[in-house]
Fold this sequence. Notes:
The protein is mostly helical. It has one domain: Alpha Horseshoe (Serine Threonine Protein Phosphatase 5, Tetratricopeptide repeat), CATH 1.25.40. About 75% of the residues lie in helices and about 0% in strands. α4 packs antiparallel against α5. The termini are far apart.
Amino acid sequence: MDASRHLQRARELLDRNRPELAESALSDAIDSAVQAEDLVMLTRARMALGELLFEQGRDLEALPFLQAVIRTEIPDGSVDNEVKTAARLLRRIRGMPE
Length: 98
């Protein structure tokens, strides 16, 4: 299964209130994106997992995923929204105003 399908599966699981299974699907999405060398999908999967962990109050676990997102630079701007969202969540984790 490719990364986009894992991401879609994670969204469906979250809609059904199954965050533990969604977390597993997001980890699979990251693995698939790495294997496919797809930086856009990797960034989106990291963002989704970081956000899920943040929403669960698991800030320390969310940090490496969110930090990886903000270090991502793609010239065409395809992950700019993810980078901005990750930066906002990191500020919240650090107790800084948004």
